[in-house]
């Protein structure tokens, strides 16, 4: 099926985090493509990727990067598609550098910034589902089911002494 989401990351080392986005998109049956693209290391490729995204049928871009994480912002600079940014937890500064690099965009070029690390990676996929669900009823239904299952799983185990 034609990918609706483009999942990009600054380095193959980000996959440990970004695999959670891909897994969640899989669980929601959202077709997506995955590629390493870096604003720093492959700037021309990034511009080509993002400039052609819309005509290739992508409707949401999810970009994860760590450290001087300029990838989501530079992607947003080249497209009006929604761009969701995931700050990857960096070794030196624990992801605070990534978060601040992504979140503080100048007015006019928005990036929807998620939490640092795995939670942000999962939530980016769910956020993409919310956006796509406005147009695709199947995705809306699948997302509602995901949320219902999550609620039921919590309600089924209210006593924390029973373990996770
Ligand atoms: N932040 C960026 C960008 C970018 O923003 O374009 N390109 C690579 N990186 C980040 O550098 C970190 C270390 O990369 P390596 O592990 O390859 O040295 C990764 O977290 C990556 O996202």
TrEMBL record:
<comment type="function">
    <text>Catalyzes the conversion of N5-carboxyaminoimidazole ribonucleotide (N5-CAIR) to 4-carboxy-5-aminoimidazole ribonucleotide (CAIR).</text>
</comment>
<feature type="binding site">
    <location>
        <position position="11"/>
    </location>
    <ligand>
        <name>substrate</name>
    </ligand>
</feature>
<comment type="similarity">
    <text>Belongs to the AIR carboxylase family. Class I subfamily.</text>
</comment>
<comment type="pathway">
    <text>Purine metabolism; IMP biosynthesis via de novo pathway; 5-amino-1-(5-phospho-D-ribosyl)imidazole-4-carboxylate from 5-amino-1-(5-phospho-D-ribosyl)imidazole (N5-CAIR route): step 2/2.</text>
</comment>
<dbReference type="InterPro" id="IPR024694">
    <property type="entry name" value="PurE_prokaryotes"/>
</dbReference>
<dbReference type="GO" id="GO:0034023">
    <property type="term" value="F:5-(carboxyamino)imidazole ribonucleotide mutase activity"/>
</dbReference>
<protein>
    <recommendedName>
        <fullName>N5-carboxyaminoimidazole ribonucleotide mutase</fullName>
        <ecNumber>5.4.99.18</ecNumber>
    </recommendedName>
</protein>
<feature type="domain" description="PurE">
    <location>
        <begin position="3"/>
        <end position="154"/>
    </location>
</feature>
<dbReference type="InterPro" id="IPR033747">
    <property type="entry name" value="PurE_ClassI"/>
</dbReference>
<feature type="binding site">
    <location>
        <position position="41"/>
    </location>
    <ligand>
        <name>substrate</name>
    </ligand>
</feature>
<feature type="binding site">
    <location>
        <position position="14"/>
    </location>
    <ligand>
        <name>substrate</name>
    </ligand>
</feature>
<dbReference type="Pfam" id="PF00731">
    <property type="entry name" value="AIRC"/>
</dbReference>
<dbReference type="GO" id="GO:0006189">
    <property type="term" value="P:'de novo' IMP biosynthetic process"/>
</dbReference>
<keyword id="KW-0413">Isomerase</keyword>
<keyword id="KW-0658">Purine biosynthesis</keyword>
<dbReference type="InterPro" id="IPR000031">
    <property type="entry name" value="PurE_dom"/>
</dbReference>
């Amino acid at each position: 099926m034609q990918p609706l989401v483009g999942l990009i990351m600054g380095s193959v080392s980000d996959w440990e985090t970004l695999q959670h986005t891909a897994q969640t998109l899989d669980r929601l049956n959202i077709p997506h493509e995955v590629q390493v693209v870096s604003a720093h290391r492959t700037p021309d490729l990034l511009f080509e990727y993002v400039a052609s995204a819309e005509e290739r049928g992508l409707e949401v871009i999810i970009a994860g990067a760590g450290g001087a994480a300029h990838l989501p912002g530079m992607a947003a600079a080249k497209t009006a598609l929604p761009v969701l940014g995931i700050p990857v937890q960096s070794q030196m500064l624990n992801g605070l550098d990534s978060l601040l690099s992504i979140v503080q965009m100048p007015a006019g070029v928005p990036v929807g910034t998620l939490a640092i690390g795995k939670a942000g990676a999962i939530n980016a996929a769910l956020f993409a589902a919310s956006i796509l669900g406005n147009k695709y009823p199947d995705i809306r239904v699948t997302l509602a089911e995901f949320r219902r299952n999550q609620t039921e799983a919590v309600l089924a185990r209210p006593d924390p002494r029973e373990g996770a």
